[in-house]
Amino acid sequence: MKSKRKIFLYMTVVFMFVFYVLMSLQMPNTEGEPNSGHNIVIVEGWDFNTTRDTTHYVLNTNLSAHIWPEHFCDLNSFLLVMVCSGPANFEARSAIRDTWGHERIILGNNVSLFFLLGETTNSSLQYDIMLESDRFGDIIQERFIDSYNNLTLKSVFMLKLVSSYCANSTKYLLKIDDDMFVNMIPVVRMLRDRNSTTDLLMGKLICRARPIKDTTSKWYSPRYMYPHHVYPNYVSGTGYVMSVDVAEKLYKAALKTPIFHLEDVYTTGLCAKRAGVRPKNNPLFTYQSMNYDVCLYMRLYTAHRFTPSDIRKTYTLLKDSNVTRECTYHRGRSNLSVNWLMNNILKVNKPNKNKCE
Q1: At what angle do helices 90-98 and 123-136 cross, to 10 degrees?
Q2: Domain 54-281: which topology?
Q3: Helical spans, DSSP H, in 46-121
Q4: DSSP assignment, residue 236?
Q5: Which of 20, 113, 115, 178 is the most exposed place for a label (fewest CB within 10 A)?
Q6: Cα separation of 169 and 180, whole Å?
Q7: What are the transmembrane regions (predicted)?
Q8: Distance between CA 131 and CA 32 in Å, rounded?
Q9: What integer is the mean pLDDT of 244-272?
């Protein structure tokens, strides 16, 4: 009788141990995270119980856009520019239309440009967006609430649209934010001079970045969304360029990859890794704040944190032949500082070889 009781107790202990192990495998790892246990700090809009299945939000076969341009990708273009814009950012869109986004033929190559937005709950704002769309015909508004933590959804919709409608009419896609200045001629020249029009994902490469555990940071990453210690290599989401075949690969990968709220990590890191796409660095894609110098911006592909007035000012100066001549021939002592800044940018933006391998 005693031996049977011992066996029963032994089996009970084993059962409880196995049950504990199985349950621990299903629970998110919150060790070392602020407010762990029952007080997990969540990402707004993406709590632990919210599905992150991409196909739940992005329907693979249906056109879901609330606002849709009449001639999206109807014509052949060398480069398609998709500007990720906030619903209320009318001035930014206007500045881009009037400046670097205005030209449709660059170095003999056709360029098209559209603004990609999410939805707003503000009915007055929505009415103004519809008027803007009727006037310019360059607005795409998809059916998700536009917010910082939904930027990943915006990029996946972008990949879907390009894969579904532009695969046979466009060679390259430039994803750019609406607070960026883009020097379109050097970008098109760089793409034109490539030996191939495939296998490209390029921007400012970020290698072996660690998830931020500061819960007050906009880039906070809880373990229930990303349990690993290092992100895959990725390019900054402020602006990057890819060939259309890569856009298709990233979209297919996204449909199998759980949503992660940091857009660039997700799209050009997690999805790229799943798709077998290796992001490449180009130091002329920049996102740092810099001292204003038009000669410097003449040489860069992108620059970040530009107000609408900054965009207009820089574009006007770069179109001034006297200014560009001064920059081109390095006249004046000011160009010494520009050369120093340029060399410093190239040095800072050069990825650490050991980290990036």
Answers
A1: 10
A2: Spore Coat Polysaccharide Biosynthesis Protein SpsA; Chain A (3.90.550)
A3: 90-98
A4: -
A5: 20
A6: 26
A7: 7-25
A8: 50
A9: 98
- pLDDT for the residue 355: 65
d(CA 55, CA 207): 29
CA distance 160 to 116: 12
- pLDDT, position 1: 53
Cα three-residue angle 110-133-94, rounded to 5 degrees: 70
Helix axes 321-328 and 334-348, enclosed angle (nearest 10): 70
What is the reported pLDDT for 336? 47
- Amino acid 233: pLDDT: 98
Q: Which residues contact 209 (CB under 8 A, 6 or more apart)?
A: 230, 231, 234, 265
Structure confidence by residue, pLDDT tens digits, 38-73: 467 999 999 999 999 999 999 887 788 999 999 999
* Cβ-contact 251, 159 below 8 angstroms: yes
Query: Contact at 8 Å (CB) between 222 and 232?
Result: no
Which pTM does this prediction carry?
0.85
Give the residue extent of every domain in the chain: 54-281
Dist CA 131 CA 52 (whole Å):
33
